[in-house]
Fold:
Amino acid sequence: MSEALTHTDFKSDIKPVWCPGCGDFGVVNALTKALAKMELRPENVAVVSGIGCSSRIPAYTTCYGFHGVHGRALAVGTGLKIARPDLTVIVTGGDGDGYSIGGNHFLHACRRNVDMTYIVMDNRVYGMTKGQASPTTEPDWDSKLSPDGTGLREFQPLVIALSAGANFIARAFTGDPNGLADVIVQAVRHPGFSFIEVLSPCVTFRPEQRDWKKLVKPDAVKPTADIARAARRMLRDTGFDLGVLYAGTRSPYAPRGPRAQRDVRELEARFAL
Amino acid sequence: MSEEDRPRAGTTPRYSSVSIALVGSGGAGVMTAGNMLLEAAAHAGYYALMTRSSGPQIRGGEAAAMIRISCVPIDCMDDHFHVLAAVDWDNVHRFGAEIPLGPDSLIAGDPDQGEPHAVFASSGAAQARVPLKKMAKAIPEGRPNMLLLGFAAMLVGLPDDSVSRAVEKSLAKRPAALPPSLAAVAAGRDAAAAVERRYMLAPSPARGTPRWLLTGNEAAGYGAIKGGVRFVAAYPITPATELLEWMSPALAEVGGTLVQAEDELASINMAIGGSYGGVPSLTATSGPGLALMVESLGLAVASETPIVVVDVMRVGPSTGIPTKSEQSDLNIALYGLHGDAPHLVVAPNSVADCLRTTQWAVELAESLQAPAIVLSDQFFGQTRAVIDVPVEFDIGTGPARLVAAANAPGFKRYAVTPSGVSPMAIPGTAGVTYTADGLEHGERGTPSSQGTDHLAQLDKRRAKLELADYGAHWADVEGEGDLAILTFGSCTGVVKEGLSRASVDGVRARLVSMRLLSPTQPARLAAALAGVRRILVIEQNHTGQFFRHLRAEYDLPAPVTSLRRPGAMQFNPGDIHRHLLEWSRS
Structure:
């Protein structure tokens, strides 16, 4: 069982539910390539997700997977990684799952800085429920639920992640699976909470996103550990600059205080008279 | 000092149970004194309970330490208090309903701090005036609460050395405070010597078994660890916080971990994540938190991930009364989940049973790969009790979780099996990787919208709970006769004592305290109720949730009546005694 695995060894035989041309196919390709490149074994990797189109990813890999409820993927991943620090934990999902219903967990996952990787496939729309505005949707994007748009400014995931304490922040494009795979490898290897915003077009409800391939600027940035510099980049860029925008030096989450392996019965001394 | 309403002269009666309330404004130290009194009673060989109450202020509000000391094991407070001893009377009248007094009671207070409020004085209790503050001032660094401790201990006849031991233990880290405290205790004792009315405890029984001093929250925490829990995700909420605070350092000592979550949605999902990783996992909360966790309880059902949620019930709905007990989360625990979602609900029926039942819940959740809710309540959770060391359940289930071996041929995580339980692959195990899913799925775990897969998995998840053998632990059944009382949780102790008093009047009844509330046990309850003529259901909530549940889920063999009362209006044994007399004769 020790022969080298290729990316196809990490792909399951389950046919994705995604529409033809969906950006998320590129993420499965990139993720499986990255896992093979890191010479990990499927049984030592857990892919955790919430609900939405992109949250279907775990079952499309041969890793351990957990497809939970809407918005709680980071919580499941956090519990899994703290209980089983030996595993490589990768949390996946979409912009609605991560920034709207799961927004609180996003903030606190950044703060907590548990050593895991969060891949958000951002298509600026709720696809599974057939086209509603998400937190990253433009304010004037018309939909049945919010005619003429929501009128709300877009959520800024990268700079929010930075200010909340994420230790690694990158932007990648699903149209470049090799580049994305490379970013995933860096993210998994970087200690602490790593966050990758993946621009992943929804060709069904946002067909104009097919043009993203013309807008993205590969290798536009080099990593910095300077938080102020990273913040300026994130606030000023067009949203299509690809690369690692921030690679920090915070220590990952670890349980604090003295730890021991005593016999359970010794706890009874606390009650004994 | 003076004493009014002197009791008649004669031989001093001996009490088998005495109840004392120590009250005062914030910072007066009545909780400290109460804890010491409890500990002193324990050292002297008595059983005891202490509940506490405080005003709405976060810190510094008035406080009451309510203590019952007994020669025999006790699981509830008494009908009224023998002694109410106050450092001062600021806002203490708020506790009027919680500290009922009678003409045989004694109110002791410092005349320089004012007079007892009418809510107490109208009881006709005798009054003792003790200038606590002046007396404390006469002792350098002396404090009135220590005077009160010595006073109360003397009134009930606790031996000096037991009190000294309790004070020494409590002040072990502050040795400088010990001499003035002991001096103040001695002064309090002297003050009590002048009071004629006494509540002398009968001699303590020989200590046949070792005793513990703990709260129900601590007992549940320890039970969880004994059951194998090594991962806890925690969000603070009254009255469950102390359970989590107890577990935090305790887990660290046995190789486990507790993580503080950002909310209850996170805490239950973190627990699910930990358990998916093969580590038995738990979270604890109260009603508002349980309501937030309900969706993910369904996830644990569908993904067949074992977890335990301890719900330390408080008064609801909404924020309700966080510091008061109520059994009103039964409905949400049993029926709150959407979809057809079989799961386990168990209820401990004493402080000691919080240990056993929580341990049992972990073992059931693990072996049946399902979520288990433990319905504790504020009374158990925050009552400090002196108890016999709990006898553990003989469960003997062997390895708790059925796990898949590496490279098991044809592994299907959700395979339909005769028992309904299918092997669970633990991450790290090669050749049996799978994706757990809250979506309905086929045997492999692949999402499926087919009715046949839905039915097969519904049947599987129901079967594993219904086919399990819960042994004798489903309920505690005692007594005989053609009357039966059905109850659960913290009502059990009150009902037992009320029934015991009624039995002196010739009332004979069976008592069924149900520990396993879901899945239902129709055959076992039918056997327990065989031949009964009438049934009484007793519970602490407004709508009769347990009564309705029993009527809906069981073919009860006799007419049923309901005795219920909302939280913050606890039953006492006298209430039950009177009701049983009336009910049995009607």
